[in-house]
Structures are given as structure tokens and as C-alpha cells.
Specification:
230 residues, alpha/beta, Rossmann fold, 10 helices
């Protein structure tokens, strides 16, 4: 059985990762549980029930660390326990904005490798460049599902050339996404309902196709996720 633990910085990454896992694992027997870190404890949030009379072959635990600074800390503190519990892979995902840029990734990866305890479970830390919202910017079909008026032509004409400029080149992707949505009288805020609306509007086939080609950081995360799941 594959058992994968994914530590992410916030609710945006939780909802996106749940959708990605469900999409990638749709032809497998799998379960997903979501936990939230609070005061050093992991609290259950929700879980998908296992199919009756069918043992899952894949189990994924997604931990909302509620802070980018907690992702490495939580992996470090829980790595030995995950190994003892039979987990087969550990992943981390966090943004670079506002404190880091793509040039800082090698240094951040070295620091991650240095603080982790020794063990046998493969582990990888991924950084959305610059924010997870950059991956949303690159999924062009979702805009009209947010608001019918948000066609690519309207967005480009308003000064947001999302066709020739990829998501991670915008200096503040979450704010860029908000300003694009405002063209259709919508908003993007890092709150539960807004996050779920945007994540649910995403076309996963398009994200895993064109979006993956536009964003090296998204490609690396998906490649690592696929290797962990299968």
C-alpha cells in the first residue's frame, strides 16, 4: 500500500492537492484525509471513506500547516513517526512569495536536507513559484467559469497578457489573480469559500497539460506527486 503524507502551507494548497489526488487516483482504490496543524497538534478536518469491501491501495494524508514557516518544521518533527506508521513518501509544498525568489530555492533545499532526520522514506520539498496562484493564472479556461465576462481576450485587453506571460512572472500572483477577477466583478481572497470556488473552477486536464508546460515548479510538484502515488 502506498501511504503519502503531504505537508502544505495553507488552505489553498490543501484544496488544490485534494483535487489533484482525486483526479490522479480516480481509477484506483484510495482514501484521503485532511488534517490541520494547531499548536503542534494535528487535528482531523475531513476524510474520504474507503469503498466497502475494497481495501485502499493508496492513502494520502494532507496536512495544513497553517504557515509557510511550519512546513519544514512539521515534516522534521513527524518524519520518524511517519516512517514507523509505514508511510512510503513525504512531500512538502509552500510558496516563495513574499520572502524568497526562485534563486533562493537551492539554498532552501539544502537547508531542508540538513535539518531532516535520517530515514528511509523519500522526501521532497516543493516551492510554488512565486505563489500557488501563479498556477491558477496559467489555467486559462477557468476564468469564464468564475465570471462569463472573463474571456482571455478581455483579460489581455485590460493589460494582463496571460497568453505570452506565464503565471510565475507576475510579481504578486495572488494579487494579479484578484485584479483579473475584478474585471468580471469578482474577487480572489485567501478565504475558504473563495479558495474553493477558484480551485473547483480549475480544469485539471488543462492544468496537467498546458499548465504543467508553462510552469516548471508545477511540473516538478506533479512529477513528484505521481511518483509518490504510483
Amino acid at each position: 500500500m502506498r501511504k503519502v503524507a503531504i505537508f502544505v502551507e495553507g488552505l489553498t494548497e490543501v484544496e488544490l492537492t485534494v483535487r489533484l489526488v482525486e483526479h490522479l487516483c480516480h481509477s484506483h482504490h484510495y482514501t484521503v484525509e485532511v488534517q490541520r496543524q494547531y499548536g503542534g497538534n494535528l487535528l482531523p478536518v475531513r476524510a474520504t471513506p474507503a469503498a466497502p469491501n475494497q481495501a485502499p491501495t493508496i492513502h494520502v494524508t494532507i496536512v495544513n500547516c497553517c504557515s509557510d514557516g511550519q512546513v519544514v518544521t512539521q515534516i522534521k518533527e513527524r518524519y520518524a513517526g511517519l516512517q514507523a506508521a509505514g508511510y512510503t513518501s513525504v512531500l512538502g509544498l509552500q510558496d516563495l512569495y513574499p520572502n524568497f525568489s526562485a534563486t533562493d530555492v537551492p539554498k532552501l533545499q539544502q537547508g531542508f536536507a540538513r535539518v531532516l532526520p535520517q530515514g528511509t522514506i523519500p522526501r521532497a520539498l516543493h516551492f510554488a513559484e512565486l505563489e500557488t496562484e501563479a498556477w491558477f493564472i496559467d489555467e486559462h479556461t477557468h476564468y469564464s467559469r468564475i465570471a462569463p465576462a472573463l474571456t482571455v481576450e478581455v483579460i489581455v485587453a485590460a493589460g494582463f497578457d496571460i497568453v505570452t506571460s506565464v503565471g510565475h512572472t507576475w510579481p504578486h500572483p495572488a494579487d494579479t489573480l484578484h485584479r483579473i477577477y475584478k474585471l468580471g466583478n469578482r474577487a480572489y481572497k485567501k478565504r475558504g469559500k473563495t479558495i474553493c470556488r477558484t480551485v473547483n473552477a480549475m480544469s485539471l486536464p488543462d492544468m496537467l497539460g498546458d499548465g504543467r508546460q508553462r510552469s516548471p515548479s508545477f511540473h516538478r510538484f506533479i512529477a513528484s506527486l505521481e511518483a509518490s502515488l504510483f
